[in-house]
Amino acid sequence: MEPNEEATHDEQFAARLASATPEERQRLLAGQVLRRASEVLDVPALDEESNFLENGLSSLSAVQLAKSLMSDTGLEVPLVAIVEHPTSTLLGKYLAETYEADAA
Questions:
Q1: 3-state secondary structure string, the chain?
Q2: What is d(CA 9, CA 42) in angstroms, rounded to the nearest whole number?
Q3: How far apart are CA 7 and CA 72, in angstroms?
Q4: pTM of this prediction?
Q5: Of 32, 18, 44, nearest to 93 (Cα)?
Q6: Whole-number mean pLDDT of the chain?
């Protein structure tokens, strides 16, 4: 993906998040976490309940995942959040809650 395509994609994702209901937002975020985690961990068979740590998450890959998600969402993604919420479902829920809190 070219740099301008990435920026457009991020803007489109941000717009989808902004217009989504809380339930849709959580689903969108969990899906994005799953896609990014699959890329970073190079594990194409991850599912929403796959544990990042059990699939080879290292400190470097956690940083890469956090940076990708921050770029996609505009949210702060602390590394500890990835460890404490080690599946796409859990991290998506955490990010949705963070999004809601930031919007309030």
A1: CCHHHHHHHHHHHHHHHHHCCHHHHHHHHHHHHHHHHHHHHCCCCCCCCCCCHHHCCCHHHHHHHHHHHHHHHCCCCCHHHHHHCCCHHHHHHHHHHHHHHHHC
A2: 21
A3: 9
A4: 0.88
A5: 32
A6: 90
